[in-house]
Amino acid sequence: MPDIADRLKNVTVSASVAMTQKARDLAAQGVHVVGLSTGEPDFPTPEHATEAAYAAARAGDTRYPPTDGTPALRAAIQRKFKRDNNLDYDISQILTAGGAKQIIFNAILATINPGDEVVIPTPSWISYADIVKFAGGIPVPVACPQENGFKPYPADLEAAITPKTKWLLLNYPSNPTGSVATRAEMQAIADVMLRYPQVWIMTDDIYEHLIYDDVTFYTLAEVEPRLFDRVLTVNGVSKAYSMTGWRLGFCGGPKDLIKAMSNVNTQNSGGVTTLTQAAAVAVLDGPQDLLKERAAIYRQRRDYVLERLTSVDGLSCHKPQGAFYLFVNIAAFIGKTSAGGRPISNDADFVLALIEEQHVVTVQGAAYGMSPYFRLSYATSMEMLQEGCDRIAAFCAGIH
Ligand code: PMP
């Protein structure tokens, strides 16, 4: 076979995608699987989004879109940034793409030269490091320990910055830990970054509206206006509005960066599906009550799963205040053996044995850069969560 490009050699297949496939394979064999690996809301897309897409299709809005996004959508995004984040972006500072993932990809591709470094507080979303490697850059993880709520110590962030650093990537609420940065913590990060004017900062705010308790969401450009010209604020409709399949992400940022990203966009996609853009205008400008209603349901699920799992001997878990994940510590089980006789020497062994013996699908912490943990998504029904917790408890009780 002819060769595949070298640039793909270090890029891995996402472990959560691999685990979700494993769940599908088992289910196809007739096994009753409890899938807790997917980072996807289980609610339907709001009706008014679907209606808007349908109306756009009927009206013949089916030709090539403007690559950066339709004027109507970019204006709706501009209003969203003002309403939710108190950020004033000019229309020329706003860009859309096929998901927040493609926004991040375009930003990295537009800025990274071979050998440039990207500082990533870790554990972190699987794709950041792979996207950086794809572009020829070097991901530089900064450990965010459980005892600090899975957030970075500012001194550790500062120590990771070198003359080669191009970006700092921030993601609150976080995938995989659900951590949320307070205003003071955000300010402490900002104080460090003010000392390094050569570094861009990307804030991936995709879980902005999935936030619990009395916590308030803050994004960096809002907290520290002096960084406004160096921050790329990334968001999208996938998680907030249960629109993962529609593929729309967007960002606000410095004009020159947006222009460079727009160049990438013209070559790698040609813009987001017109019907998706119409649907996105409808949800961004439409009633926002559903965000709070759904967050209340996620919070109930979080409380339930947290209570069940923290009462299992050997599991410990930081209480997350956002997103829909728990990042569960399994240090007590390393070096032991499952009821089915499988040695558990790391978190991947734990997760595989849990699938094989109890048919519960989660993802190992190693995939997010921190072990020994597993990530569980509670974006599923209470029934599934109850069944999942019962089986995880039984699995842990059998470890010896
Ligand atoms: N950022 C984070 C932290 C995510 O978890 C995800 C989805 N798993 C994305 C971005 C991608 O979102 P989108 O569907 O908009 O591409």
From TrEMBL:
Protein EC: 2.6.1.-
EC class of the enzyme, as a word: transferase
UniProt xrefs under CDD domains: AAT_like
Record SUPFAM superfamilies: PLP-dependent transferases
Domain Aminotransferase class I/classII large: 32-392
Entry keyword annotation includes Signal: no
Molecular function GO terms recorded: pyridoxal phosphate binding; transaminase activity
Taxonomy, superkingdom: Bacteria
InterPro entries found in the cross-reference section: Aminotransferase_I/II_large, AspAT/PAT-like, NHTrfase_class1_PyrdxlP-BS, PyrdxlP-dep_Trfase, PyrdxlP-dep_Trfase_major, PyrdxlP-dep_Trfase_small
Keyword Transferase assigned: yes
The protein's required cofactors: pyridoxal 5'-phosphate
Family: Belongs to the class-I pyridoxal-phosphate-dependent aminotransferase family.
PANTHER family: ASPARTATE AMINOTRANSFERASE
Protein name: Aminotransferase
Species this chain originates from: Erwinia typographi
